[in-house]
Every structure is written in C-alpha cells, then in structure tokens.
Amino acid sequence: MRTRLRDRVAASDPGLLRLVAGLRTVGAIALALAVLALIGSDVTHLVAGAMAAMVATFAIREKQRGPQAVTLALGLPVALASVSLAALLSSRVVIGDVFFVVLIFCAVYGRRFGDRGTALGLIGFQLYFVSLFVGATVSGLPELYLSLTVAFACSALVRFAIVPATPAGVLQRLRQAFRARLAQLISAQLDLLEADPDDIDKVLEDLREGTARLHETALMIQTRLDDNTLDESTTRLVQRRIADAEIAAERLGLLLLTARSARRADTLTLHLPGAPLPSMGRMPGTDEATGLLRRDLAALRELVVRPPAEARGTALSHLRNRLLGYRDEENLPAASPAAQDVFRGIGETARAVMGLRVALDGPQDESDDSPATTRSREELDAEDAAIDAGEAAADEAEPTGLRRPTTRAAVQVAVGSTLAIVGGEMLSAQRWYWAVLTCWIVFINTASTGEILVKGYRRLLGTVFGVVAGIVLAGLVGQHTWTAFALVLVFVFAMFYTAPLSYTLMSFFVTAMLGLLYTLLHTYSASVLLLRIEETALGAACGVVAAALVLPVRTDSRTDELLGTVLDRLTDVTEGAVDQLSGGPAADLLDRSRDLDQALGDLRAATQPLTHPITPMRARRDTARYVVALLETCAYHARSLAATAELLPTHPSIAADPRLRGAVRRTVRNIGAIAAHVADPGAATEVETGPSIASLLEYDAAGVPRYGRITGRVLRHLERLDEAVTGLARPLGVPVAAPKR
C-alpha cells in the first residue's frame, strides 16, 4: 500500500518538485517567524520577514547548490538596497515612482543574464513592493534590515540543510515518477483491452492523458540530466533508455487501438482530444488470446513497478523471459494478426523496460535468463557500447537591440507599469502598487499579447474568488495572530503546489493570504480587498495595452515563428534518421529529437490563447488544436525513426538501405514547402502527393519483398509521417498538388 501511494504521488508530481518547492518555502517562512518572534519583533516586521523569506526562497532557480548559494548571498545586499531606497523615496512621490519604473525595467532586462539575473531582479522588485506593503520608513530601517537578514539566513538554512534538493536527488525522484507514469499508462492500456464499447470514450481519454504525462516526465528528465553531475556517457545512456521506453509504450497503445478497431488506428487519435474514434468492438480472436493479453499486460506492469530491491527472484525472471520471448515469431500465441502485433509490442516494451532498469539501477541478475532474454541483453550491451557523446550543437544567432525578447519585455513592462502607477494612484494613493504588481506578473513567462491577455484574465478571476475567501477568513480569524500566520503558511504551500497546474488557483491563494496579512497589520476592511480587485483589473489592462501598443508581438506572429522552428527541427530529425538508415554517418539524433520536443512544447504553450475556452473564435481554436496534434503525431514518428536509426549498428534485423533517401525526399520537400508558406503566405509553394511510401518500398520490380533489408516498422513510420505532413497542408492553407501520373 505504501509503495502504491508513493508511486501515485510521484506520478502526479514528477520529481516531487512542487512538493519540495512548497515545503521549502513554508519551512523558510515558519523558521523566520519563529526566530523573529523569539527576538521580540512586532507584527509588521514579522510580516516583512515572512514575505522576504518567501521571495528569497522562490526566486532562486539554479539547479546546482554552489550557484544557488552565490545568488542567495548576492540577493541580501540587493534586498537591503531596495528597501532602503523605497523608504528614502516614500515621501517623494514623483521621484519614487520614476525610480520604481527604472527598477522594474532593470529587473526584467536582467533576465538576459540567465537565472542569476532573473533572481536578483525579482528580489529587487519584490522587496521594494514589500517595503511599500508594510509602510517602511527611514527610522524603521534597522529593524527591517534585521528582519531581512533573518529571512535570508532562514531561507539558506532550509534550502541547504532542512529541505535539500540536489540534482542527483531530483533526478532519482524523476526516475521514480517515470516508472510510475509508465505503469499508469500500461494500466490504461489494460483498461482499453477490457473496456466495453460504451466505455471507450473515457478509457481513451485516460490513455491520451497517460501518454501525454509520460512524455512530459521524459522531457523533465532530459532537462534535469543536463544539470546533473553524471558523466556524459551515462547521461546519454539514461536519455536513450527513457526515449526507448516512451516510444515502445506509446506504440503498444496504438497496437491495442488497432486490434480493437476495424482498421489501423491513426496516431492522431492519441494526440487530439475529441478526435473521431475508429469503430471499436471486441478484441478479435478467441477469448484465450484476450486472456493471455490481459495476463501479459499485467505482467508488464509488474516489471515496471517492482522496486529494484524486490526485482530479483525466479517468479519475476519467469515473467520477463516470457514477455521477451514474444520478440521471436515462433513464440507468438495463436491469435489474429492484429493481436499478434500487440504481443510483439509487449515484447518490445519489455525489452525497453529491461534496458531502462539496467540504465537506472545498474547490472541485473542474469542467472535465470532464457535465450530470448540473453539475446536482448546482448543487443542492449551492443547499443550501450555504440552510444557516443556526439558534438555540441552550434549556438544560434540571437536577435539584438529592441528585437531581443528581454529588451522588448523590459520596455513593455516599464510602459505598462507607468500606466499602472498613474491609474493606480487615481484609485488609491496608498495601495496603487497592486496595479503595478499585476502588470509585472502578467509579463512573467509570456511572450505575446494573447498570452498576456489570458494570464491577466486568470489572475483577475483568481483574485475575485480570493477576495471572497479573504473576507470570510478575516471575520473568522479576527485578532488571533498565530492562527492567521498558520493559515498563511497553508496558503503559501497551496500557492506553490498549485502554481504549475493552475494560475487561477494560485492567484486565489495569494489573494486569500493577503487578506490575512492585512488583518495582521490591522489595515483590513472589505473595501481594501475590493480595491485589490480594481487594482488587479487595472494592472492587467495596463499590461495588455502596453503589450499591444509598444513593440507588440502578436499571437499569430509568435505561433508562426514557433511553428517554423518546429518544422525545421522536424526536418533535422527526419533527414538525420533516414540518412543514417540509408547508410550515412552517425548523427546526434537524440539531441535533435529533444530539440524537436522542446520546440513543440514552446508552440503548445504559445497556442494557449487560441485554444483557451473563452476564445470567441471556435473554428480558429479547433484549427490550432488540430495542427498541434498533427505535429505531435509527426514528432512521435520522427522520434521513432531516430530510435530505429540508432539501433542500426547493433540490431540484426535492421540494415542500411540507400533507397530510403529517395522514399523520404517528398516528405522533406513537403515540410519545407509548409515552412516556406508559414514564413511567407504569398510564397508559391505547394504540397506534393503521390503513391504511399509503403507501396513504393514493399516490393521491387521483380515482385520480391524488400522487408529483408529494412523492418516493416520503419516503413510504417515513414508512411504515417508522410500522411501527417500532408495533413498539415489543409489547416495551414498550403495548396496541395494533384498526384502525378
């Protein structure tokens, strides 16, 4: 039970990153409050210390402990300087406002210097805001300095001693999360096998969600591996095994869908919510074959979830040997061809799971290996020996001047903040800074006007509900200081735990927490919280106006730019994989695949304004979803081609075939044509169509099958990739040429 609960938590919060962030922030605040209370600080400085501890904790983004310590040490003098200037300029309204705008510009511009520049800018801005919130004065600076120093010291103690998070530890938890999500996906596939036709919709939604979550965790591991202290060859080995397991599991889901439908399932079915389902029925063949599939999927899940310490023993070896035996044709049970494909998929997934276990947990017990298992181990060993570090990717030229994203954002935030200050002071001469804070926040991690609009809407919605909660809690808590602080800690934890999931929910907890802080400062009233709604709406509006009028980046332009990047990365992966499968030199296909996934993730985030439920343009929303789903399908097949190409030196059934270059030429040309149309809609480009790739390669002129030199899997991936690329033409408005006879 404990293991199952741990796996469920690990799957819902990969690497426990949200849990650690929440605990670390709450711990720093609680410790700072305890120390300040012991030295007799008043409530105002308790609030200042709590907010400073929160900022000092969440602002640090570096992965390694050394850089974290340096940034935290530099953050304290930045914080002291910020509150000093805020106190000195508090009585000089115009000069103070001008300085605040300059500070905001510098804080945003500092993002160009990486995580440290971002953290120091964030600390400078937030501590200036804290000084305004608590009404800092020059005479009160010594006590405020003490509160900040205690807060930063407590943040360091919690970060490095009480709730440490080393890169190796985070990576280990991410590995556990990957296993848990892989097991959840296999459970969803087992449900698909057994589901009644009336329940297919819900089961398929679980399958889509499981596939997407597995991919999300794989990307997180790929990113964390770059920051880890593992040697380069071990890093690449883990990356390769993670990719193999992900691809094998997704392919197994597609084979199950195909077996339950009257025709081969489209990969798009797994990537597009609401996609039309193929006609589903019962599993073809005998009940005995279905029972065997049920048994073997459960066995595969057992291989995934069993902890390394329990992964020894004859029973587990028997399960592993049986599943790996399905990689040999003579061991396949009597069943329909579609069901036999599922058994093959189970065998390939079992091989990927074994490779993943070796890469993550080290050498395994081989005493009970069957011949099929021994052969699989030999293949894995040969692949491991062939993995090379590869060459570092060349740096891409960055835009300069006002075209640089950090410069543009800094100018936009400065203009928006100026508007927010003017408008905010018209609403309230004391609490105008709420509008500035909202304007600042809506620009964080956004890159287009549409993204800023959606983020502003979510913040306003969360603020409205948070005000209601704040009014209720203020009446309940009253003057119970430590009860209020305890609730503040609960809300801080909830804020950080829910931040990656829902910005609206995070804004709700922030506003409810502020209602309690106002109560502690004896400045609470319902009108104050209602004023916060007005200031929040004003700040969001100022941010949108600045983004729309000052160096604007339209959502269409942003998505077109990212779409072009995705198409370029897709070409790199496809050409590199096919060139290697055709006998060309080995390339760094793993890094290319990761670049493709990252570009696709950026595009998916940028299309959120287009796919948001409140968007009035329904047809445009559906088109955006369809295009992203098609690109995810293309990426899946390109990654599969890359994984197959990397098997070329070691896999006995895969041999180089120069004819593949000609087979993929049309697909690559079509990707280029779509990219050219996206860059310039007036360009004279068109997508070519013609005979399917499989029909071109299946037989030679004498009618002899060519599958002896390349696997059918390569053909299927090439065919599906070509179909998906052609399918992109219609929603993107690219002309399609008639097939040449």
Automatic annotation (TrEMBL):
Q: How does it sit in the membrane?
A: Multi-pass membrane protein
Disordered: annotated segments: 359-380
Integral membrane bound transporter domain residues = 420-545
Q: Where are the transmembrane segments?
A: 21-39, 45-62, 69-87, 93-110, 117-138, 144-171, 409-427, 433-453, 460-478, 484-501, 508-530
* Origin: domain of life: Bacteria
Compartments in which it is found: Cell membrane
Q: Does the keyword Chloroplast apply?
A: no
Taking the record's annotation, the residue ranges forming a coiled coil are none
Taking the first listed entry, what is the main subcellular location of this protein, grouped into a coarse class? membrane
InterPro entries listed in its UniProt record: Memb_transporter_dom
- Is the Acetylation keyword given for this protein? no
Q: Which CDD domains did the record assign?
A: SNARE_Qc
Keywords tagged on the record: Cell membrane, Membrane, Transmembrane, Transmembrane helix
What Gene Ontology cellular component terms go with this record? plasma membrane
The family annotation for this protein states:
Belongs to the YccS/YhfK family.
Against PANTHER family, the record matches this protein to:
MULTIDRUG RESISTANCE PROTEIN MDTO (PTHR30509:SF9), P-HYDROXYBENZOIC ACID EFFLUX PUMP SUBUNIT-RELATED (PTHR30509)
From the Swiss-Prot or TrEMBL record, give the protein name: Membrane protein
The protein's organism comes out as Streptomyces griseoviridis
